[in-house]
């Protein structure tokens, strides 16, 4: 299963087996490139283990809080901060995290596994119940490696895909495979299976700010979000289309990035009116980024 995901994490891999649970991880190193960022990761006493995909942007604040309470860290990764925060706060920590992630946390003392997905479901997390057990992974292909998995098509999900463009809620194109829903975590033990919501959009309170106040807040929030996304121990780049979204992100990122921000743009020659390469180049030049552009061939010209 881990080998099937090596293309997602070519830098390192590892496994951990503890009684009835097996954890595997293929790592793409972004924060803490040293061996202290290796996964699966464990607390010093071996009580908790984690495999983590994604990034938590408020981990420096959580790290400072935990350090003030006496927690000692081996490395500098956000994974280690999440692991220690879970050992300190339990499942309450999920609502404290600001980021995009999917993770599995093993509580060895209580023989309990938690599968957690970020609030908006940015990072994927799939699972399938097989007999009395469960398999999970960041891609469905990792589950399909399991010989006991039933590969029947989920026709309801297929109909949803044809109508909406994607299956709804936890459905996937396979009858036995489900998605962990955004803002949810599953708690699994030998005799129980619980699906818990830790965040939902309905929790957001309506705002009565004036247009000027709302505009100011949105700009501040966007700038803070972009700055948080720049935390990395490897170079950061931006996919720049020349549209409003990527142009705003590029402008703010180039303002706060320590170094030469790289932008990447792709254009196509089958529809000149839709080609945004010129706009992307203008934004890249205005933001003084190191830009790379490429042109793709029209699909209609491809031949078998």
Description of the structure:
- It is a single chain.
- Helix content is 26%, strand content 27%.
- The protein has 7 helices and 14 strands.
- The protein has helices at residues 59-68, 78-89, 140-144, 155-164, 211-229, 244-256, 277-286; strands at 12-18, 21-27, 41-42, 48-56, 99-107, 112-117, 126-130, 133-137, 177-179, 184-189, 192-197, 237-239, 262-268, 290-296.
- The strands form 4 sheets. The protein has a 6-stranded antiparallel β-sheet with strand order 3-4-5-6-10-11, with helices on one face.
- Strand 13 (262-268), helix 7 and strand 14 (290-296) form a beta-alpha-beta unit.
- Helix 1 crosses helix 2 and helix 5 (211-229) crosses helix 6 (244-256).
- The longest helix has 19 residues, at 211-229.
- The protein is globular, with a radius of gyration of 22 Å.
- The relative contact order is 0.09.
- Mean pLDDT is 90; it is low at 298-304.
Q: On the 0-100 scale, what is the average pLDDT?
A: 90
Number of β-strand runs: 14
> What distance separates the N and C termini?
32 Å
Query: What is the general shape?
Result: globular
- Any idea of the CATH topology of the largest domain? Glutamine Phosphoribosylpyrophosphate, subunit 1, domain 1
Which CATH architecture of the largest domain? 4-Layer Sandwich
> The biggest beta sheet, please?
6 strands, antiparallel
What is the topology, as strand order, of the major beta sheet?
3-4-5-6-10-11
User: Strand percentage, roughly?
Assistant: 25-35%
